[in-house]
User: Which sequence fits this backbone?
């Protein structure tokens, strides 16, 4: 099968609103240079198929604006970014406000355009919708019923059913990392974790839902060999040569994250942008080399004939999770990590917030590493989930003053209860106490009966 014939529809007000609430600096980078992340989506988050953009369309309220996120007296008008999108080859559709509530009808226009595209002579394989508006849920059902793929880009909280209908779901951190050069090496670490988890026996919940609580794996480094400029035109050959060199000379299992970082530095950071030679991920590119005796785990690559299998981290098993917690996770997407890991998550995020220099991508990466130093290995997705929960209930990590571990715990519990209620699951007092205990809320705060978050507002 060739590359997917894809169409991208951006609800600008919704898309930008979520980004700027998450990380104003990164949001402006995304919006001012849309060609960067749109081009990277050609070979990223694509299940290894690749994309060919047939439609690129942005629906924008030309009179829309938001307060200056940096405290300036003037508002930030959306029309300022129109030229950025047109220069990136994106058609901009004006959607002026239709009501006093600033409703601009972009969602209706997108729905009509997609339904029209479903009946067009050209067959679109995939529809990519950049909006967290859950009103699109019936549209996703219609697209799925017509046997087309859907990728949702939601930069703010949305309902679980909306995520479940999409073939692929991206959040604000995914978009920011697509737009950031510096984040791509770490993004490949995450891809290595995801693929590695898929290669194990499947008993653990996995990185996407949370990981175990053992000590973080040690990084086994091997020296990278510099590449001359004359070699630059043959990246695939250089990739295979360098991987085989490291694999054949390694005396211990090789850390996948470090290997991907070394290769990006040695051969070029555009490797990941090109989809790792069309394979879609770093681990699949390694597997395509068919290294003799190669075995993969979440974190490591090793030769079964020469190396001892690395000790696995202690994964949390679904059978060990109470039924009520599984129910909460099903309706809220609460990460399924070991209960005893939550205090370290709060402490690490609080430590990052106290630094006073917030960056959405860095917040999950730094906190993950800090938690590992505390002896708790938890995937970045867990920290991203908590960061979003804090923002949703008014306790953002970039608040003044920065939220404490106690307030972060309260924010997660409050957000979990709110999302479950919206989903139609209204827990009893006993069930509320059980989820609070699982999240170690009472261990994190001296006043478990009070969820006061006002002190963390901006």
Assistant:
């Amino acid at each position: 099968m060739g590359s997917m014939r894809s169409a991208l529809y951006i609800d600008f007000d919704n898309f930008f609103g979520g980004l700027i609430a998450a990380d104003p600096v990164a949001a402006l980078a995304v919006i001012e240079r849309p060609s960067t992340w749109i081009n990277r989506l050609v070979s990223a988050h694509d299940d290894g198929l690749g994309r060919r953009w047939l439609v690129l369309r942005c629906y924008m309220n030309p009179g829309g604006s938001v307060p200056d996120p940096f405290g300036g007296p003037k508002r930030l008008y959306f029309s300022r970014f129109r030229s950025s999108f047109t220069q990136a080859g994106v058609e901009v559709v004006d959607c002026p406000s239709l009501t006093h509530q600033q409703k601009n009808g972009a969602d209706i226009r997108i729905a009509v355009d997609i339904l029209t595209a479903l009946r067009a002579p050209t067959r679109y394989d995939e529809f990519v919708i950049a909006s967290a508006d859950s009103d699109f849920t019936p549209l996703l059902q219609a697209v799925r019923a017509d046997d087309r793929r859907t990728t949702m880009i939601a930069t703010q909280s949305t309902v679980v059913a909306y995520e479940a209908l999409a073939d692929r779901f991206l959040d604000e951190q995914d978009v920011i990392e697509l737009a950031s050069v510096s984040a791509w090496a770490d993004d490949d670490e995450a891809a290595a974790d995801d693929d590695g988890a898929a290669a194990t026996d499947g008993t653990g919940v996995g990185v996407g839902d949370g990981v175990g609580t053992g000590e973080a794996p040690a990084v086994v480094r091997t020296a990278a060999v510099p590449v001359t400029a004359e070699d630059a035109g043959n990246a695939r050959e250089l990739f295979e040569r360098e991987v085989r060199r490291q694999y054949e000379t390694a005396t211990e299992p090789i850390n996948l994250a470090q290997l991907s970082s070394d290769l990006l530095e040695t051969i070029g950071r555009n490797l990941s942008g090109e989809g790792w030679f069309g394979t879609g991920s770093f681990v699949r590119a390694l597997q395509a080399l068919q290294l003799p005796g190669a075995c993969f785990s979440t974190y490591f690559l090793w030769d079964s004939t020469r190396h001892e299998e690395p000790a696995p981290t202690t994964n949390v098993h679904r059978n060990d999770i109470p039924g009520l917690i599984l129910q909460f996770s099903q309706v809220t997407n609460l990460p399924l990590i070991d209960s005893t890991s939550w205090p370290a998550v709060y402490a690490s995020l609080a430590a990052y917030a106290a630094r006073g220099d917030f960056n959405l991508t860095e917040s999950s990466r730094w906190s993950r590493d800090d938690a590992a130093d505390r002896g708790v290995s938890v995937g970045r997705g867990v920290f991203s989930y908590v960061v979003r929960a804090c923002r949703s209930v008014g306790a953002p990590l970039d608040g003044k003053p920065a939220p404490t571990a106690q307030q972060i715990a309260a924010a997660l519990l409050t957000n979990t209860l709110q999302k479950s209620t919206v989903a139609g699951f209204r827990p009893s007092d006993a069930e509320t106490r059980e989820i609070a205990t699982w999240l170690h809320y009472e261990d994190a705060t001296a006043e478990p009966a009070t969820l006061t978050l006002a002190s963390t507002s901006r």
In short: The mean pLDDT is 81. The radius of gyration is 23 Å. The first helix runs from residue 12 to 22. The chain has three domains: 4-180, 185-303, 321-456.
